[in-house]
Every structure is written in C-alpha cells, then in structure tokens.
Specification:
This protein has 5 helices and 2 strands. It has 74 residues and is mainly alpha-helical. It has a single domain, classed as lambda repressor-like DNA-binding domains (434 Repressor (Amino-terminal Domain)). A two-stranded antiparallel ribbon has the order 1-2. The chain is globular and about 40 Å long. The mean pLDDT is 91. This is Putative transcriptional regulator.
Length: 74
C-alpha cells in the first residue's frame, strides 16, 4: 500500500505504550493495530485529531506516501 502509517515510530519516539495510546485516543488496542499495520481503509478526522493531540504531531507526521512504482536501488 502506498500510504504508510507511522504510529509505531511516533509511539517509540515518545516511549508510549500502545495500551496507553489507545486509551488516551479513545480506540481499542485492536483498532490501533489495524492502523499501525496499514489495514485501515479510512480514518475519521475526529480520530486523526485525537491522535495528533495525544502524540503532539501534525497529520503529515503520521502518514507517508511511498511510490510503489519507483525502482528499488540496491
């Protein structure tokens, strides 16, 4: 998938556990896992706002576009 969700990176940088993050955002740990693993099909703006508030970041810090068609250099 060309959109990568970087929640795991931001959690590690902030030394925050998934359980604490889920509770503070108002998600279940299972739904956090869906986001982290790139299996989410959509995210509500209210959820995105909560995530950004808890992680003190911008939406662009959470999401990264990766060009799947780009040639991988070795």
């Amino acid at each position: 998938m060309p959109i990568v969700v970087r929640i795991d990176v931001l959690l590690a940088e902030r030394r925050m556990a998934v359980g604490e993050f889920a509770e503070r955002v108002g998600l279940t740990p299972a739904n956090v896992a869906v986001l982290k693993n790139g299996r989410a099909k959509a995210v509500r703006f209210s959820t995105l706002e909560s995530i950004c508030r808890v992680l003190e970041c911008q939406p662009g810090d959470l999401l990264q576009w990766v060009d799947e068609d780009a040639e991988v250099l070795s």
